[in-house]
Specification:
The complex is a heterodimer of chains A (336) and B (566). Chain A is an alpha/beta fold. Chain A has one domain. Chain A has nine helices and 16 strands. In chain A, helix 1 packs across helix 4 and helix 7 packs across helix 8. In chain A, 52% of the residues are buried. The model of chain A has no long low-confidence stretch (mean pLDDT 89). Chain B has 566 residues and is α/β, with parallel strands linked by helices. Chain B folds into two domains: 307 residues, Alpha-Beta Complex (Spore Coat Polysaccharide Biosynthesis Protein SpsA, Chain A); 225 residues, Rossmann fold (3-Layer(aba) Sandwich). Helix content of chain B is 36%, strand content 13%. Chain B has 21 helices and 19 strands. A five-stranded mixed sheet of chain B has the order 3-2-1-4-9, sandwiched between helices. In chain B, strands 14-17-13-18-19 form a five-stranded parallel sheet, with helices on both faces. Chain B has a three-stranded mixed sheet with strand order 5-12-11, with no helix packed on it. Chain B starts with a strand and ends in a 31-residue tail after the last helix. About 2% of the residues of chain B have low confidence. Classes of the chains: A alpha/beta (336), B alpha/beta (566). Chain B: Keywords: Disulfide bond, Endoplasmic reticulum, Glycoprotein, Glycosyltransferase, Golgi apparatus, Membrane, Metal-binding, Signal-anchor, Transferase, Transmembrane, Transmembrane helix. Chain B: GO terms for molecular function: metal ion binding; protein xylosyltransferase activity. Chain B: InterPro entries: DUF5927, Glyco_trans_14, XYLT. Chain B: It is found in: Endoplasmic reticulum membrane; Golgi apparatus membrane.
Chain lengths: 336, 566
């Protein structure tokens, strides 16, 4: 990598930081409990809109893993989710009327909050419909993972997005508040993923899964990216560039091994496809606040109208992380 | 009090205190060394907390960075105090604050009392062990290492390279033979005091302070000078990963640790409450003994290292994406590709499935869709038959197919009509078994009901594609097992090549030979067809020499008996 390229990356990172600074004026603190944060705490950052129904389980799940504090941006929820979060003892909440799209899908807001509160902490950035799975997550708290990563001098940890879906129509089983969404959306595609390396940023670009199989089988290039790096030992100079798909400096994107070995990695169970989805898709189509002018939602709507099913004969039912590791979707690396 | 514990602590002092109390409760005196990096306030509190215990001393604090001399200096100072202040101690056990006694301390005391002259220290010459990190074995004793491997890796590597180029060597002090081994030892008073009061100690200290990772070499080398009986093993269970970093034990290792035959385990995650609760209990509450099975621990950690360094062959995933030549297997299992067989034989696919018991697909790289077996639209792993998805990343498609069907051999058809983008990947894959009947695509044209001008154009195109493919298969980079016959050659004696291919696949029922042959297409008039192409100026050469003019009475390849029984 030449000096010029390195410098260009630096400018790009600075640009991201500048955007984060500019967009932070749109954030208004609702409840600020960041005084509770102690050194070594593991922090979760998220942005959400109208996700009230998912929040109870979301918080319960991540508290169970050992997340110490939640820093959440509420993008104008109208379903009471904001009030619910404000009442939680370990949540700090910001409200914004800003445009989701023009804050690069929330990245700018979170970059700023992470720089402000996440410096020196392990930070986990996830959406309310993503459940983080890592090796041994059923027996070891997330602190065991971050301690081990610290000991191995690793600053970032990758977790691929794994789209979960129910068997049958998406809207056949309604999701109840507080329920584990994986009870309903318990199926996934075990082995149809395509990987390419992004030479510019050094990250892997993963596509595939049910969305590519059903919605994008004629235009695979437009299928959504599934690679994510949600867990990072944050430094105020770091910046997410595109969702949590990639970061700068580029070294943080090297969460994989190129010499034949496997590094440790996790999975984000993506419980997007519940009965709430069809409604959400219609709404998002109107708002046009999502990536590529919501092309994803457009494709979903068209397909779901005639075949509202993602399940196929070769879908796999989720059991636990060991199953995902055997299937080769994640790895223990040298963590034993 | 025949066993004294020298304990090196640097973090998780609460746990260190808990373990110190456990040792002390069994009557073992302790000398504790705390790293300089522990803040003074924390250290004072720690010291205060342990002030109620009778036989605890604290030694002068050194900086104990990984792989530096500080660790040895700290062990020396603490051992000296131990020997001076507790004259009854016979064995000194070096432990760390994150060590956890697995068996009741009394058992350790008894064990050592029975072996009063034995030193337990892992000690091997560099030539004999493969443990080394960073490719340095004998050189760690002959080069200088002023730069930290952890913090200044670049300078470290460059300086090593420079010394190698200039052939700079240090002299090993006369009389000693470098040995190395686990840094956690248990030495007798005689051996330890001899090492510490050696008249040459200043020389040795000066020498070892510049050796790389001296804590794994100093005592290990010098014990060889004085010990009367060395048992070259550590009483501390300690597993290292591929970077020389100790593996950490967690709550879910409880059953595993119970089956270890070691006295002490290192290193324990400070928040592994279940482990501390289970093992730091008096003998009466200690768990029932289980049959020791240390091999299982070895296997688990050896597998972890293997996974990190070599990975699972043929797997491409988010944390394993090898660069070319480092794949350790482009695919995960053997598979077979057939070119020209379905054209030449009418029922080749079902025949092959019957003869070999493998999964036989059609042209999985066909232009319209991937022709999976049994007309499935989705295959194992939810792999779609969409041609667009497949052609978007053909290599991922093939690797996924083979990975998803681990345990069942895959066979598929290929031809010049199919997507050729995969050719190099398959040719370079040692797992591929490629069988080609060149020119067999002409049979399809021969049987087709198309205008001859179209046929001529198509034949020229396919011939060109196939000849390019054959060039790849014959190149020196090809690692697959490739067999190529011209069509004329093949139909001369089709059973022999078929038998070879099937034997190689290793099917169940082939010991007696193939019971039936596939039915060959009717080739009456094929020679004339080729001649017509030639007459039109298109020279079909890939199929070999066919009789130019067909006479109904001449023996003709296509007329062979369709079923042969051997």
């Amino acid at each position: 990598m030449s000096f010029v390229q390195s410098y260009r990356m630096r400018l790009r990172r600075k640009h991201a930081k500048a955007r984060a600074f500019r967009k932070h004026f749109a954030l208004r603190p609702v409840v600020d409990r960041t005084g509770q944060i102690r050194p070594g705490h593991i922090l979760l950052f998220s942005t959400m809109r109208d996700e009230h129904v998912r929040l109870p389980y979301f918080l319960e799940y991540y508290r169970g893993l050992g997340v110490d504090h939640f820093l959440i941006v509420d993008n104008e929820s109208s379903d009471g989710g904001g009030d619910y979060l404000a009442d939680q003892p370990d949540v700090s909440l910001w409200h914004t009327r800003g445009s989701y799209r023009r804050s690069r899908f929330g990245v700018d807001w979170l970059n700023w909050l992470q720089a402000r509160y996440g410096h020196g902490h392990w930070t986990l950035v996830v959406d309310p419909d993503e459940l983080f799975i890592y090796p041994f997550c059923d027996t070891r708290p997330i602190g065991a993972l971050t301690d081990w990563l610290d000991g191995s001098n690793v600053r970032s940890f990758g977790a691929m997005l794994l789209d979960m879906y129910p068997k049958g129509r998406l809207d056949s089983v309604p999701y109840r508040r507080g329920q584990d969404p994986i009870e309903i959306a318990s199926w996934f595609d075990p082995g149809n993923y395509m990987i390419e390396k992004n030479r510019k940023y050094g990250n892997l670009w993963i596509q595939g899964g049910p969305r590519a199989r059903v919605f994008f089988q004629d235009m695979p290039k437009k299928a959504p990216a599934l690679n994510k790096i949600p867990l990072v030992k944050w430094h105020r100079r770091y910046a997410y560039i595109s969702s949590t798909h990639m970061l700068l400096p580029r070294g943080l994107n090297l969460v994989y091994d190129e010499w034949g070995g496997e590094t440790a990695s996790g999975v984000l169970l993506h419980a997007k496809f519940l009965d709430t989805f069809t409604h959400k898709a219609e709404e998002e189509m109107e708002r046009r606040q999502h990536y590529r002018a919501s092309i994803e939602y457009k494709a979903y709507m068209e397909n779901l109208r005639d075949t509202p099913e993602l399940w196929c004969k070769w879908s796999e039912k989720y059991i636990n992380w060991r199953q995902l590791e055997i299937l080769g979707l994640m790895s223990k690396g040298n963590w034993a | 009090m025949s066993v004294g514990i020298v304990m090196l602590v640097h973090t998780a002092l609460a746990r260190a205190e808990q373990v110190a109390r456990h040792w002390s409760a069994a009557g073992c005196p302790l000398v504790i060394h705390a790293d300089v990096s522990v803040p003074n306030k924390t250290f004072r509190a720690f010291r205060e907390a342990l002030s109620d215990l009778p036989d605890v001393r604290f030694s002068r604090r050194h900086r104990c960075e990984w792989g530096t001399w500080g660790l040895v200096a700290a062990s020396q100072a603490a051992s000296q105090i131990m020997l001076d202040e507790f004259p009854k101690v016979r064995h000194v056990y070096l432990a760390s604050g994150s060590c956890l006694p697995l068996r009741p301390v009394e058992e350790l005391i008894d064990y050592l009392a029975e072996r009063p002259q034995t030193d337990f220290i892992e000690s091997a010459t560099t030539a004999d062990v493969p443990w080394t990190i960073g490719g340095l074995d004998a050189e760690r004793f002959t080069l200088r290492f002023p730069f930290s491997w952890r913090r200044h890796r670049y300078l470290f590597d460059k300086y090593v390279a420079l010394q190698r180029t200039l052939r700079l060597r240090r002299r090993i002090p006369p009389g000693i033979v470098p040995h190395m081994g686990s840094q956690w030892w248990c030495l007798t008073r005689q051996t330890l005091s001899a090492i510490l009061s050696d008249p040459e100690r200043a020389t040795y200290d000066r020498y070892f302070s510049k050796v790389w990772i001296p804590d794994e070499a100093y005592f290990q080398t010098l014990a060889r000078q004085y010990s009367r009986r060395i048992e070259s093993r550590s009483l501390t269970l300690s597993k290292f990963d591929y970077q020389g970093k100790p593996h950490i034990f967690y709550d879910d290792h409880l059953q595993l640790l119970r089956r270890s035959d070691c006295f002490v385990a290192r290193k324990i995650w400070p928040r592994a409450n279940r482990l501390y609760d289970a093992f730091l209990t008096d003998a009466a509450h200690a768990m029932k003994k289980t049959e020791p099975n240390p091999g299982k621990i070895d296997r688990i950690f050896a597998k972890a290292v293997e996974r990190r360094t070599r990975g699972r062959p043929g797997l491409y995933m988010q944390s394993r994406f090898p660069v070319e030549t480092r794949e350790n297997g482009l695919t995960s299992a053997q598979y077979s590709m057939f070119q020209g067989f379905t054209e030449l034989f009418e029922n080749f696919e079902p025949w092959l499935a019957r003869a070999t018991g493998t999964r036989v697909h059609g042209h999985i790289f066909a232009p319209e869709r991937a022709e999976f077996c049994d007309d499935q639209t989705v295959m194992n792993g939810a792999l779609s038959d969409s041609a667009a998805l497949r052609d978007y990343n053909p290599h991922a498609f093939l690797a996924s197919l083979i990975w998803n069907t681990r345990g069942e051999r895959q066979c598929f058809q290929f031809g010049p009509c199919d997507n050729q983008a995969i050719n190099w990947d398959i040719a370079k894959d040692p797992n591929a078994q490629i069988s080609v009947i060149s020119g067999a695509w002409a049979v399809t044209l021969f049987q087709s009901n198309r205008n001859f001008a179209d046929i001529r154009r198509e034949a020229a195109r396919l011939q060109q594609i196939e000849s390019k493919h054959l060039e790849i298969l014959r190149s020196s980079w090809t690692k697959a097992r490739v067999r190529i016959w011209t069509m004329a050659e093949f139909i001369e004696a089709p059973m022999e090549p078929l038998q070879t291919i099937i034997d190689e696949i290793g099917a169940q029922q082939t010991t007696r030979g193939i019971a039936e042959a596939p039915k060959m297409a009717d080739l009456t008039g094929f020679g004339q067809f080729l001649q017509n192409l030639k007459n039109q100026g298109m020279h079909p050469y890939l199929m070999g020499n066919f009789p130019v003019a067909h006479s109904p009475h001449a023996p003709q390849a296509g007329k062979r008996k369709p079923y042969l029984v051997r």
